[in-house]
Protein: Adenine phosphoribosyltransferase
Organism: Flagellimonas oceani
Amino acid sequence: MDFASYIRDIEDFPKPGVVFKDISPLLKHPEALQKAAEALLGFTGNARVDKVVGVDSRGFIFAPLLAEKLGAGFVPVRKTGKLPYKTIAASYELEYGSGSLEIHSDAIEKGEKVLVHDDVLATGGTAEAVCKLVEQLGGEVIQCNFLIELTFLNGAEKIKQYQKKVLLQY
């Protein structure tokens, strides 16, 4: 399937000079959504996965689907102040600013195998922060997978110690 035909460019969002890759057209087409989920699932092969971590907010779309198919739990990583229980946090830089992410302190147990999923790998700061949170809780990141990678931003360099799988590259 030509997944790229379902991705829409939005100029100057969220700030001037940024071209946002909008996955909404893919999400509203049932066949494209299903095929994308199947392709992301296929990236895991036969690996044992205990938890799938989805990154706020568009990572929440595919991560629970993957968790259900893998027989794994789903763990949300959210922007600061959005989780109700005790959390640990990590800061990160992205192409248009900085931020902080949190995970519940009891979300991952020592030795659990973790798949990290987000919609876009850009500068790699978000993915790197999420992997650090997983490892801080004692989990093992077995793979980071993404719908889209913006290769010109070199984000893969920040997570080069982890296996990375991507559906579309720009």
User: Anything to note?
Assistant: The first helix runs from residue 24 to 27. The chain has four helices and nine strands. Helices lie at 24-27, 30-42, 59-70, 125-136. The domain at 44-169 is CATH 3.40.50.2020 (Rossmann fold).
